[in-house]
Amino acid sequence: MAALRTPASLVSGCVTVLLAGLTLAGCSGGSGKDDAAPRSQDTRAAVKKADPSPAAPAKGDNFGCLTPAQAAAGSIVFKSATGAPVGGFLTGSGNTGIVLAHQSDGNVCQWKDKAVELGKVGFRVLAVNSTTVDEAAEIEGAASTLRAEGAWKLLLMGASKGGTATLGAAARMLLKPDAVVSLSAPEKYGTIDALDAVAGLDVPVLYMAGAQDGAFATAARELSAASIRAPENRLVQVKGSAAHGVALLATPADWDTVLAFLRKYCT
Residue 214: what are its φ and ψ, rounded to 5°? Predict the structure, then answer.
């Protein structure tokens, strides 16, 4: 995995408040590609699904990647918009919150490194550990949790099926996010139709996909084209890349692009 680097301009970019933050070390999670192809009901049947009756999450869970200290400080349980208990990893501090939604082949660990890095440069971050069938409701619950923690502004970022859920959640949230990042999202996953959702979405959106990532590259173009109300509608097709979702951010230039976009909408 490419070494993480943080642009110097970002370190002073977002104003932080005097609240306790976490300065944690990270380890990478999986970044495979088993999400549903856009608009494919048959493909989704073969995708690994969340357990329909998962065990209730526990505060302090290490998710298989947190150290004991990290789990004690940042592993939380919050409620989704439908009241279901959801686990997550909370880190950082500041007036701008970021919700991170993982791919179907991962868990909260898939976003851990980036969550830690964003936390260190002035964001308050909650990486969701999705276990329910309504991931959009999980994202809405995470957003409410960050606002309760002191986030004045809110950003959403999701990878692959997490990107689809993020777009769906952003469209239906009463208190809209300030910006959204979608990485390799299919147009539709489960019950969420992102192509329909983005037609009414009036917040800035960054769509990123590898140009060689097949149907996911096509989906990014179609989602961007449908986002007719977005005040900023940025489409980044990474030339020569078949990287998918979170794996796109292993390339420093791609990560810098995402960081620059997030920085525009932080406090």
Answer: 50, -130
β-bridge pairing 153-159 and 179-183 = parallel
The model's pTM: 0.82
Backbone φ, ψ for residue 191 (5° rounding): -95, 0
Q: β-strand 75-79 against 85-92: which pairing, if any?
A: antiparallel
Residue 102, classed as helix, strand or coil, is coil
What residue has token string 């959640």? 169
In a 10 Å sphere around its CB, with 0-12 CB exposed, 13-18 middle and 19+ buried, how is residue 119 labelled?
Answer: buried
d(C-alpha 244, C-alpha 215), whole Å: 11
Q: How far is it, in rounded angstroms, from Cα 67 to Cα 132?
A: 25
Is residue 166 within 8 A of residue 108, CB to CB? The reply is: no
Name, in order, each residue with C-beta under 8 angstroms of 23's C-beta and a sequence gap of 6 or more: 119, 120
For 156-214, write each residue's pLDDT tens digit.
Answer: 999 999 999 999 999 999 999 999 999 999 999 999 999 999 999 999 999 999 999 99
Q: Is the dihedral of CA 54, 216, 233, 238 positive or negative?
A: positive
How many C-beta atoms lie closer than 10 Å to residue 95's C-beta? 18
Count helices and strands (H / E) in the chain: 9, 10
